[in-house]
Amino acid sequence: MKTRAFHVDIDCAQLSKEGCQVCGDVFLSRRIKEEDRIIAVMSDGLGSGIKANVLATLTASMAITFTLEKQPIDRTAQIIMSTLPVDSKRQISYATFTIIDIESGGETRIIEFDNPAWIFIRDGKVIEIEKERVNVVLDGGRERQMYLSHFTLERDDRIVMVSDGVTQSGIGTNDMPFGYGDDSIREFVCNRIIEDPTVSAHELAKVVIRKSNANDIYKPQDDISCAIIHFREPRRLMVCSGPPYDEIRDKLLAEMVRDFKGKKVVCGGTTSQILARELGLSIDVGFTLDDSGLPPASKMQGIDLVTEGILTIGRVAEILETMQGFEVIGAGPAVAICKLLLGSDVINLVVGTKINVAHQDPSLPVELEIRRNVMRKIARLLEEKFLKEVNIQFI
Q1: Residue 38 in contact with residue 102, Cβ under 8 Å?
Q2: Contact between 352 and 371 (Cβ < 8 Å)
Q3: What does pTM read for this prediction?
Q4: Closest to 245 (Cα-Cα) out of 266, 223, 262, 270
Q5: Are strands 143-152 and 132-137 parallel, antiparallel or unpaired?
Q6: Cβ-based burial of 195 (10 A; exposed 0-12, middle 13-18, buried ≥19)
Q7: How far apart are CA 291 and CA 319, in angstroms?
Q8: HSE-up of 70 (CA within 13 Å, CB side)?
Q9: Of 27, 84, 190, 206, which alpha carbon lies 20 to 30 A from 229's?
């Protein structure tokens, strides 16, 4: 199976301006598996609400599309700036943007236009990266400035992007008459990383949002967004479901699970019995039911989670397909698996291909798909929707 020395942990947290149902900031990211490449864009639409969201979505979508087509990052920015209209009264663009393009090995290019300056953190300290100012002449002779950076990420480096709802939070209050400011957000993020060097991108982004909301006395005066990119050691997870096609491979399956370095999940009664037999372990069968309607989880030494098979992984696929963001709500074995999946970076799916006669019963629900198809669906969702690196192996 493919392994990689480092993983790009990336997430964004957002909060809409008070009274608005839709956030006027947009964050998009894509993982290009074939090129081992990450593209991330944050755009802030002029104003707030639906209009701002539409403008920011247009900007971020163009940035993603042009970068995917391997347009030079500065050329992409020029096209976007030429396309965006300008507010007739304030003479400013209808959306700002920051585009980050991270290639295999950590080589990184960032271009920014009118967003608060992105922050680069290494060893708990802010490091200033040289930025090249690029002047762009647009239609009608308008001249705008953007900034281009090019550097290489190292292990545990972080990039922090925020919208002006963060830097300007608290503006007009006694403590922050001019807003929170760039220096304060830098200090705040560094202190949080020093407190917990392993803090995830998801949690760090949420902490920044909570602080900005508190600055605004819990009535946000603007859309608030924070995106974190963390270049770190990957967190690995193996999900094993289904017995091997041939019983002679039971020992191979057991050795794969035993020798795996990371967290382990086993889905399926037959699968867990094979592992227990081959590894000389016992299964502590669970009997406590919950509201999920699924069979309860069991326990086995050295395995982080043991569950029922096809019904549970079918529910996992359903949860991943319908959920918004990275927050998993609810309880039960399927929810527990989803939390482990979303908390991991490199996920190995080991799928047994022996046909279970019980699953051919026509009285069972139509949606009870063959195990391998469900696992393929889970792999696709994890890769495309949640930017995970997934390896799938059929045995």
Answers
A1: yes
A2: yes
A3: 0.76
A4: 270
A5: antiparallel
A6: exposed
A7: 15
A8: 3
A9: 84
CA-CA distances (angstroms) from residue 346 to 227, 229, 263, 383? 21, 16, 11, 10
Short-list 266, 294, 262, 295, CA closest to 279: 266
Instruction: Give the residue carrying structure tokens 């508190």.
Output: 214
In the chain, the N- to C-terminal Cα span, in Å, equals: 13
- What tokens appear for 371 in the block? 């195990």
* SS3 of 18-44: CCCCCCCEEEEEEEEHHHCEEEEEEEE
Tokens 């993983």 correspond to 7
CA 229 → CA 14, 72, 200, 224, 347, distances in Å? 15, 21, 9, 17, 19
pLDDT in tens, 210-234: 999 999 999 999 999 999 999 988 8
Domains (ranges, CATH) in the chain? 7-232 (3.60.40.10), 236-394 (no CATH)
The one-letter amino acid at 348: N
